[in-house]
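User: Batch of two.

Assistant: Item 1 of 2:
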Amino acid sequence: MGVVPQQTFPVESCLVDPGAQLFVFSDGVFEIIRNGELIWSFEELTLYLSELVDSRSEVLDRLLAHVQELHRSTELDDDFTIIEAKFP
């Protein structure tokens, strides 16, 4: 994931429950363009992820397949970068 050199970001912390999952991703995971229009939002991504996590399926594989289906191509317009962290 790219960052701008010399850029500063706020730092925060929180407690994470055992069994929790954390997803860190680029905007290319949810900014899906088809025919010049944005067709999927951040809110729709978070809802989709929460449904996948609850189903205990292969989250990242299913997410990528869904995004490719939305875009109607395996070649996306932007990077698709996502990291899944599972907390035991």
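Item 2 of 2:
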Amino acid sequence: MELGEQLADIGCEQCGGTHKSAYGFVYRAGDAYGVYFATLHTGHVEPSVGLTLSIGKWWNDDAVDERAWVFLQVWMQENEYRMRLLDPNLSHPRNHKALGNPLSRDAAPQGALRNDFFEGADFIVENDPVVTSYLDTGVVDIARWQEKRDRQAG
């Protein structure tokens, strides 16, 4: 995993508040295999994350048609991370063409990449420090994120 270079504040289309957004890259066998955007819904009562995850040939800039993406909601319930597929039109970065082909709630569970999407989402939730801290405690731990970014850079 490689964390993105910054955390951003983004507006919420539903509540009008501001949320934190993180992004990063997931690798497989040394190659970039996935890109994710995590929207931490810090303005809402219950902590949840909107996770946009694109999987495919990210090592090839011209392979946009060989990538697919899903949008998941992730939350903590009874000491477990829970996930459900949502309509990709609800995803904040839904207009980023580089993500590839959006998969609907109905199409994603049927596809060949189904296991890759859920394994990738599990990996992100367990390894991105701001996602983990927010889901576990309701607080975005920016210091832990910066520490991991510094280790990656150095």
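The chain has a mean pLDDT of 90.
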